[in-house]
Each structure stands twice: as structure tokens, then as C-alpha cells.
């Protein structure tokens, strides 16, 4: 009788992180992230359903010092062990397998630089109550239906000031940064923002990038042109955030149509890779 092998997704190929950072950037990111995890006893990335989770014996520390030496990606993959989490362990979603039948993930190759105080923090994903991943820009009110819409965003709060910054490397355009407050002012007090509010503030930055792209239509890659005849805001879903350096996060973005090939290695400017 012929044996059947159960196919499992590859963390370096099939997830949102891999499709955003591309192979080299993903290896670099994963090496740093797992190196940070090794500072916490019992912490690891493990396969779970059609994705991967970070399991810890306790919630992650907020003031630990981390070393940042890179390691071979083969070692990084070995640490993503086959054992599943136990009920006593703290679990965070690390990544999910991408369904590329539904569109294209925006490629944003970049180098990650861990923060000395916190290392690389776990990705933040926007998961709807119906189980779908991501909030469509054309329906931002849907952020109210995130499964944890009213929850505070803990990982973003491990920062000494009141601001966080997002970085977007839209193909064909210069690197874009947008800074926003991670607290709201309520009754004279600074209250941490909720997941729902976080989506809205990311969308505000995305809108500003779009306006700049429309005003300055020159791009080396016409496939990713922003504006009329190109990519529209209404075609974008905000999947989540990747921590890429101290206080800086990169949105993972899903375009709800296909662009082939989605990435031009030969003409992608060097500034996008650093």
C-alpha cells in the first residue's frame, strides 16, 4: 500500500511573514526572533493547525535584555518543534499560511533590527470573529468585529513614550514612515489604544502613503502604481503588524487581486532592503 505524507506549510515560504519579507528577509527575521526567544526558558515557535504559534511558559517580559547574534536558518527551523502547546502555556499567533488564491501579499523586503530592551516582539494579527484574517480598507468599521476589538495592544505598549511608528515599503516607491499615538486621552488620562483603534491608525498611515503616491506617480514598477489605473486603497486588506526595529512596525498587507510577477529583484532599489 502506498504511504501518504501529510503536507505541512513551511515557515520560510508559506506564511504572511515570508510573503512580506521574502526569503532572505524572512531568514534574517526568524534568526533574530528565535534568538530572542532563547532568552526565555521554555519559549519556542511551534506548528499549530495551518500556521505557527509562539508558546511561552509565562507572558513575555517587558524589560529583559537580549543578545542579537544571528544563527543559521536550519537551526531556526529545528527550534520550531513538533510538540504542541499545553494548557499551562501562554500562546501567541506567530504566523498563518497564506491563501494565495485570494490575492497577492505586498512584498516589503527589509532588515530587522531588534530592540535591546525587548528584542523582537511577536507579530500582531487582526483576526475577525468569524475566523477570517485581516480588515479591508474599504470596510474599516469591520474592525469593531475583531475577536479582541476592545483589547489593548500589549506589545505596542512596551515603549517608553506615547508613540509608535509604522514603516511601509510599497514596491516602486520610497520608504514611508508614519507615527501615531498608542494612547488615547480619556477623562484626563492616557488610556492604551484598542485593537480596533490600532487598525484605524494604520489605515490613516496607509491613506497618507496613497495620497503621496498619487501626487508623485513616478514609479519604477508600474504593476504596483498607486492610484487610478493602478492599485486602489479599496483593494487592500490590513492583515497585521511585524515588529522590525525599536518602536517601528511594518503592516502586512494583502491585495485582493493578483499581480504577477509580484516582485522585481533586478530593479528593486537597495534602500528597500535595509
Write up this protein:
The chain is an alpha+beta fold. The chain has one domain. It is built from three helices and twelve strands. Strands 4, 5, 6, 7, 8, 11 and 12 form a seven-stranded mixed sheet that branches. Strand 11 and strand 12 form a beta hairpin. Helix 1 packs across helix 2. It is globular, with a radius of gyration of 19 Å. The N and C termini lie far apart (51 Å).
* DSSP strand tally: 12
List the total number of helices: 3
What is the number of domains? 1
First-last Cα distance: 51 Å
**Tell me about the biggest sheet?**
7 strands, mixed
Helix content: 10-25%
Cα shape: globular
What structural category do the secondary elements indicate?
Answer: alpha+beta
Report Rg: 19 Å
Mean pLDDT: 81
Low-confidence stretches: 61-87, 269-274
Strand content: 15-25%
Q: What is the string of helix and strand elements?
A: HEEHEEEEEEEEHEE
List key phrases describing it:
274 residues; alpha+beta; 7-stranded mixed β-sheet; 3 helices; globular
Topology of this structure?
Layout: H1 16-37, E1 44-48, E2 51-56, H2 73-79, E3 90-96, E4 104-105, E5 124-125, E6 135-136, E7 163-168, E8 176-181, E9 183-186, E10 189-192, H3 195-215, E11 236-245, E12 248-255
Helix pairs in contact: 1-2
Summarize the structure in short:
With 274 residues, the protein is of the alpha+beta class. The protein is built from 3 helices and 12 strands; from the N terminus they run αββαββββββββαββ.
Amino acid at each position: 500500500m502506498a504511504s501518504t505524507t501529510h503536507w505541512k506549510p513551511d515557515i520560510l515560504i508559506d506564511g504572511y511573514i515570508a510573503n512580506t519579507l521574502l526569503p532572505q528577509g524572512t531568514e534574517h527575521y526568524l534568526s533574530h526572533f528565535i534568538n530572542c526567544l532563547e532568552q526565555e526558558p521554555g519559549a519556542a515557535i511551534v506548528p499549530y493547525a495551518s500556521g505557527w504559534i509562539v508558546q511561552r511558559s509565562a507572558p513575555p517580559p517587558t524589560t529583559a535584555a537580549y543578545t542579537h547574534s544571528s544563527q543559521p536558518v536550519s537551526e531556526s527551523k529545528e527550534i520550531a518543534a513538533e510538540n504542541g502547546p499545553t494548557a499551562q502555556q501562554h500562546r501567541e499567533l506567530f504566523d498563518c499560511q497564506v491563501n494565495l488564491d485570494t490575492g497577492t501579499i505586498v512584498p516589503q523586503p527589509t532588515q530587522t533590527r531588534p530592540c535591546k530592551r525587548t528584542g523582537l516582539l511577536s507579530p500582531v494579527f487582526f483576526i475577525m470573529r468569524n475566523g477570517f484574517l485581516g480588515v479591508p480598507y474599504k470596510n474599516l468599521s469591520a474592525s469593531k468585529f475583531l475577536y479582541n476589538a476592545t483589547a489593548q495592544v500589549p506589545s505596542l505598549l512596551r515603549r517608553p513614550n506615547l508613540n509608535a511608528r509604522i514603516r511601509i515599503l510599497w514596491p516602486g516607491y520610497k520608504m514611508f514612515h508614519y507615527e501615531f499615538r498608542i494612547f488615547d486621552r480619556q477623562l484626563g488620562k492616557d488610556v492604551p489604544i484598542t485593537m480596533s483603534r490600532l487598525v484605524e491608525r494604520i489605515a490613516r498611515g496607509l491613506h497618507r502613503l496613497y495620497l503621496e503616491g498619487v501626487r508623485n506617480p513616478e514609479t519604477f514598477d508600474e504593476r504596483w502604481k498607486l492610484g487610478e489605473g493602478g492599485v486602489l486603497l479599496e483593494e487592500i486588506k490590513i492583515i497585521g503588524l511585524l515588529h522590525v526595529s525599536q518602536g517601528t512596525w511594518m503592516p502586512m498587507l494583502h491585495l485582493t487581486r493578483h499581480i504577477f510577477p509580484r516582485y522585481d529583484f533586478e530593479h528593486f532599489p537597495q534602500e528597500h532592503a535595509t
